[in-house]
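Appendix B: complex inputs.
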Amino acid sequence: MDWSTVQLWVGALLTLMIFSFLYKDNPFYKFAEHLFVGVSAAYWMVQGFWQQIVPNLLAKLAPGSFENIIEAARGQQPELVYIIPLILGLILLTRLIPSIAWFSRWSMAFIIGYTAGSNLTRYLVSDFIKQVEKTLALPLVATHADNWLQWIMYSVSNLVVFGGVICGLIYFYFSKEHTGAFGRASRAGIWVLMVAFGASFGYTVMARISLLIGRLEFLGSWIRSFI
Amino acid sequence: MGFLEALGRLDRRWIFLLIAVSVTIPLLLQRPAPVKPSPIVRNLYTAIDALPPGSKLLLSLDYGPSTVPENDPMAHAIARHALSKDLKLYVMTIWATGPPLITNLFETVIVPGFPGKTYGEDYLNLGYKVGNQGLIQSLTSDFRNQYTQDVGWGDIAARPVGQIPMMSTIRTIKDFDFIAGIGSGQPGLKEWVQFAGDPTGTPVGGGVTAVEAPLLYPYYPTQLVGLLGGLAGAAEYEALLVENHPEFGEAAQVALIRMFPQTVAHLVIVSFVLLGNISYFAQRGRRRK
Amino acid sequence: MKRTIPILITAVVGGLLIAAYFVPAPFLASADRLIPDFFNIIAAFAFVLGGGNLLRVHLTKISRRDHEWTYSVVTVVGFLVMLLAGLLKLGTGEGGAFHWTYDLADGRLLYDALYQSVFTPCQATMFSLLAFFVASASYRAFRAKTPEATVLLIAAFVILIGRTFVGGYLTAWIPEPFSEYLHIPNLSAWIMSFPNLAGQRTIQMGIALGIISNSLRLILGIERSHLGGGD
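Resulting structure:
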């Protein structure tokens, strides 16, 4: 039996073990689940070590020592600025030692500072300013169309987006009571959101079925290997 | 207990069985579904198709085994399209689970389908780096500081980027003509728009799982050139590709074949929901009486 | 030390990135280049922390003989085998015990073999289980009880049918030019591109405002709950 056959059988048996959960929770499922957790944690660790820590940290700090492993380090000068992420990275690991775990907050603070600083500008531009701009720039009356129906639909479609966004935002505005015209707009906002949720639901179902198809294809290839 | 009440209390394992059967039987037929491309998919196809030969396309495979059935056909179709147009294909990933998917792309699509193309001159494996959005942001200021070398392919060992012909003109992400992100979550296509496309003006397009697709529509069409939403999106792209490149044949119709069982399963689920509602309203009507 | 320094680090790092976005100064451009670079490296250490933490939790369970501790043995063994295979680049036996290749997806590595035979089937199957649960949940819970729920249901139906070829057959009888919009696949594309877009944009803008305000609170040191106790 060659290595690829072993892999196919191990994969198929683990697939069946996990599918057995559909009948009820059982030791086979738990075995596969726990094995997966252990293997995946190590998988990530190895990727982080060989693809980032070695080439982008150690090989930059001490290129001479790593030139046999990382070809790009050959002939390079040490970049001592990388001592900073090395220290912060090691400090992060103090979280594993309860008596000095608080020290890891320094590294966490860097991670949070980066995430907050970069998210603030990117979300502001991509997810807020550009969205406001695109909503307000919509022509509510179509300027060109091939036929009358297209003209109506272009205009209605843009109105749906413009009105939908405004009404949706009104629904999320809680500082004013949702009564009268404001309440009616808020209710229209709910309807727009419901259509969006319906679309998301439909797409979610679609996604899950696709994944099942992939797994059944795999089981099919396994069955074909021995019949 | 009436029929409708029994229907309402149906053991869920019967539903599980029916779903499994409804996917398995049409899957055995291996028939491509007739698919009509939607405008959002056509836009992506047209944008890539319009790139002149020699243009640099960055393809990022940001997913893992969990969504391979949806994402792989997208990545494979875009890679086929790019190489058939003589574009330079740079493949990378910001997901740790991505590197084996790049290998699979090379083994199953590029090497057998494009024997005339050379690794390092026409396509390149840049592999994985940690950092999510941080990595994308770093690439916008200094690509070579992150990717100091490629990963290599087959007998060709990893080389410093300075020795790779395809990398001679790449300094930052702005040097690419198109970024195609294939993703299944965070980080993914959204981050490519936020951290690469919007700040640099490089066109971004790609495909995501169906779960994520509705969330990305607000970016279309100015921030996101086009979008493949789930398996159906992949199938639509394949339909366009096969229509214009019949030479790719059945190998390029993976998503189209999967759309057949997908359709049957959709119909079964719609029937379930209808039956569930009929049962609910019948019982409610009886209670009111 | 425990709170003041982290607050300062967050403020300086976040503040520099925001300033770099708006002010084209060379010093800030360097900060904008180095900070994400450092972040990427620290993030790699977080993977190590994750693995270390998992090991600690499961070894504690084993040593205490906690409920179902035997499964923790499976986790620890799986973790250690994968870790050693990857760090030492052990081979599968085809052509040597070690393969010092830079490519971790090289088929000759035991690490890659374990990815293909253990990681891939487990992850893919776990996600595919959701197909069954989503079908069952739809059957049991998806009821048109209110007008809003009915709208959701109809939108979902149009999408589910419209994204398949059956949708095309069902409405093939609709004449031009109405078919451009009422043909179910076209109607489904219209729902996605207009009402769905409006709804998603509303949510997206709300999330963006939330992220912006929370980021500001973190950078200004107003939000400190993540730091825990102590000075």
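The mean pLDDT of chain C is 93.
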